[in-house]
Design goal:
Helix content: 40-55%
Domain Indole-3-glycerol phosphate synthase: 11-266
Number of strands: 10
Mean pLDDT: 97
Catalytic activity: 1-(2-carboxyphenylamino)-1-deoxy-D-ribulose 5-phosphate + H(+) = (1S,2R)-1-C-(indol-3-yl)glycerol 3-phosphate + CO2 + H2O
CATH superfamily: Aldolase class I
Shape: globular
Largest sheet: 8 strands, parallel, barrel
Strand order of the largest sheet: 1-4-5-6-7-8-9-10
Enzyme class: lyase
CATH architecture: Alpha-Beta Barrel
InterPro entries: Aldolase_TIM (IPR013785), Indole-3-glycerol_P_synth (IPR045186), Indole-3-glycerol_P_synth_dom (IPR013798), RibuloseP-bd_barrel (IPR011060)
Number of domains: 1
Pathway: Amino-acid biosynthesis; L-tryptophan biosynthesis; L-tryptophan from chorismate: step 4/5
Bound molecules: ligand LARABZUK
CATH topology: TIM Barrel
Order of helices and strands: HHHEEEHEHEHEHEHEHEHEHH
Number of helices: 12
Length: 267
């Protein structure tokens, strides 16, 4: 598997490692077996519906992320306990959770995802790097309610096909973009849920202006999520004033002794 030629290096490196893991996983558990597991998986919890509901009630909708480590920041949380974190997020009023499962760069695992989902009733996105239809079925078999598709690492036909496949399995899809060109590609597949990632994956610099600059290009019927680098009450106020009401936050919560308490102070 190779990523789009102009994808940032970090995505190329992650996908290279991931491709080896997916190949091994296919040997260990052939597609037919994963499909059977997906058929008897826990029913889908509506991810986008949970965001929409929270926003319709006049609140910000928070996708609270659990991640132990990130490529840009290294170790974020030594005492990483996904079940405990999920309970804290749920009690603090998160709309949905995001749990990293990527092993090599984020030190995530499928076990983390299972533990978090079993510990609360919220919908969860399986945060991983998806390029193979096998991974979409695998995500549903694991109990995922939503999967992430990163436009920067996918060809257009691949993006379209994976999106259609995930929706056919009943999951929502967060289609992630970083700039106007990627946003155009996300809109071309009529993605109902689009995340604008404020992290430049070449410099790792985050800037909420990335969202502010693109917001006018997003149709009102699309649910827009702003992702990354949201750290202060001012960030939240600025984005809400501009019409953004769904937020994906990881680091600011992970660095706090009680991630739920941090959520309550930010939102
Ligand atoms: O976070 C990174 O270093 C990173 C590097 C390469 C690809 C993706 C990366 N992050 C994934 C995310 O999108 C964030 O975990 C998510 O948006 C939350 O961001 P933050 O609140 O800044 O932790």
């Amino acid at each position: 598997m190779s990523t789009a030629a102009d994808a940032p290096d970090i995505l190329k490196r992650i996908v290279e490692q991931k491709a080896q893991r997916v190949a091994a996983q296919k040997q260990a558990m052939p597609l037919a077996e994963v499909e059977s597991a997906a058929q008897v998986a826990d029913p889908v919890r509506g991810f986008k519906a949970a965001l929409d509901q929270r926003i319709a009630a006049g609140h910000a909708a928070v996708i609270a992320e659990a991640k132990k480590t990130s490529p840009s920041k290294g170790l974020l949380r030594a005492d990483y306990n996904p079940a405990e974190i999920a309970q804290q997020y749920a009690a603090a009023g998160a709309a949905c959770l995001s749990v990293l499962t990527e092993q090599d760069f984020f030190k995530g695992s499928d076990a983390h995802f299972r533990q978090a989902r079993a510990a609360c009733n919220l919908p969860l996105i399986r945060k991983d790097f998806v390029f193979d239809p096998y991974q979409v079925v695998e995500a549903r078999a694991l109990g995922a309610d939503c999967v992430l598709l990163i436009v920067a690492m996918l060809e257009q036909a691949q993006l379209q096909d994976l999106h259609t496949q995930a929706q056919a399995l009943g999951m929502d899809v967060l289609v992630e973009v970083h700039d106007a060109e990627e946003l155009t590609r996300a809109l071309r597949i009529e993605a109902p849920l689009i995340g604008i990632n404020n992290r430049d994956l070449r410099s790792f610099h985050t800037d909420i202006d990335t969202t502010l600059k693109l917001i006018d290009e997003v149709p009102a019927t699309t649910r827009l999520v702003t992702e990354s680098g949201i750290a202060t009450v001012d960030d939240v106020a600025t984005l809400r004033a501009a019409g953004v009401h769904a937020f994906l936050v990881g680091e600011a919560f992970m660095r706090h002794p009680d991630p739920g308490e941090k959520l309550k102070t930010l939102f």
